[in-house]
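Sorry to interrupt, but I need a hand with the structure work. Can you supply me with one protein entry, sequence and fold together? No commentary is needed, just the two lines. Leave the record below and I will have a look.
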Amino acid sequence: QVQLVESGGGLVQAGGSLRLSCAASGRTFSSFAVGWFRQAPGKTRELLAAISWSGGTTYYADSIKGRFTISRDNAKNTVSLHMNSLKSEDTAVYYCAAATTRNDYEVPGWGRYDYWGQGTQVTVSS
């Protein structure tokens, strides 16, 4: 088991920045790939970014590519999502999730995540 807790959400003006953090406890965090998702009201949950357990492989959805950056610090059991140039359409609840993988370079797809945080609200005002 691994427990995940997100933090860093809040209210920001369009064009601003936020950094979300995902803190993990429980099983060895460095053996999990981690993804950041978001879900806006009435929409399906979207995989935004993911990072392999080594940090050497990353994935970004087209909707946030070039604006968001995912990173991890296995020594501190944290994964961060740096969000720049925020838009009103980025308003959503943001979740981090962890997935077991067979190697240190795999980045899992949407349905592969077993452990989830409770989410943090990000609201971007226009």
In short: Residues 62 and 98 are 21 Å apart (CA to CA). The radius of gyration is 14 Å. DSSP finds no helices and eleven strands in the chain.
